[in-house]
Design brief:
Elements: H1 11-16, E1 19-26, E2 31-35, E3 41-49, E4 52-57, E5 63-68, E6 72-76, E7 82-87, E8 93-101, E9 115-118, H2 126-137, H3 143-164, H4 174-179, H5 181-192, H6 200-207, H7 211-222, H8 226-243, H9 248-254, H10 260-270, H11 276-283
Antiparallel strand pairs: 1-8, 2-7, 3-6, 3-8, 4-5, 4-7, 6-9
Helix pairs in contact: 2-3, 5-6, 6-7, 9-10
Length: 284
């Protein structure tokens, strides 16, 4: 149930579904720099000085262009090929990392396709950036490993900032739900305890709302019913754990299903009739 204590909305997600950052560039960028799209891969760029033009194709096939004229974070959470044009060759500081999201990470589709955020707007990242640029400027023991972890810290700080902005223009989905203080209480409880016997009344109680108001607000923010979201969350966990070698019987017990057959039926319903075993053969 809601109370005045702080709520950690991100840890339960990242404890279940990891993201791995890998530093691949530090220093100036010259002319045109192209970044390829790969399945499951995003990008996080930091420009500390200078300006540049960003180009990428939209869903309609048209090329979108925008200028970044102040120190900024440039975040592509989903695979999208993009180019940096006219990047400065003097007085510029760039660090770039790939972000490999674990398959099924629920936040990937819940974010805008591109986030460009001036560094001055994000409180609390100065210390992270100082360490990150310090590690990228010269080779020392553990430099790459530390830089990668700092990029992961930076990503969490960026997501935290996005969630804390009132009236932020977040797309329909999980991020919008987590940005609502009432819905966030229910969602975080689902993320922490997916195997609990969650009824609509129990979820509404976590949010401190009536069942009807909770169901309406949930659907307006996430685009699906609470029951459908819970089923999708459980299936995302099941897919990840099946890849890791856990048995369907064990998963059914952990996720609140009476038996493996019940989980298998839900799996087939959500995967066009494909059984968990057949799915694992295709995607494991």
């Amino acid at each position: 149930m809601t109370d005045s204590s702080p709520l950690d909305r991100l840890s339960p997600l990242f404890e279940r579904f990891r993201v791995r950052a890998s530093l691949f560039h530090a220093g100036p960028l010259c002319g045109v720099t192209h970044f390829d799209a790969r399945p499951g891969r995003g990008f996080l760029h930091v420009m500390r000085n200078g300006e540049m033009e960003i180009r990428h194709a939209t869903a309609t096939g048209l090329v979108e262009s925008l200028w970044v004229r102040e120190p900024s974070l440039v975040f592509y959470p989903r695979p999208l090929a993009h180019d940096f044009h006219n990047a400065p060759t003097e007085g510029s500081d760039f660090v770039c990392a790939t972000l490999d999201f674990e398959a099924g990470h629920p936040l990937v589709q819940a974010l805008p396709p591109l986030v460009v955020l001036p560094l001055a707007q994000v409180q609390g990242i100065d210390a992270t950036l100082k360490l990150l640029f310090g590690e990228s400027e010269r080779v020392r023991c553990g430099q790459r490993l530390l830089a990668d972890r700092l990029f992961e810290v930076l990503l969490l700080q960026l997501l935290r900032w996005m969630l804390d902005q009132r009236d932020a223009a977040l797309p329909l989905g999980l991020m919008r739900g987590l940005a609502d203080p009432r819905l966030a209480c229910a969602l975080t409880a689902l993320h922490r305890q997916p195997g609990q016997a969650w009824s609509l009344a129990a979820m509404a109680a976590e949010a401190g709302m009536s069942r009807s108001r909770f169901a309406e607000a949930f659907r307006d923010a996430l685009g699906q019913t609470p029951a459908d979201y819970l089923a999708d969350w459980r299936l995302a966990i099941a897919r990840a754990e099946l890849r890791a070698g856990k048995s369907l019987k064990t998963l059914a017990a952990e996720l609140g299903y009476a038996n493996a057959s019940a989980l298998s039926r839900l799996f087939a319903l959500r995967h066009a009739g494909v059984s968990p075993r057949a799915w694992l053969q295709q995607h494991g």
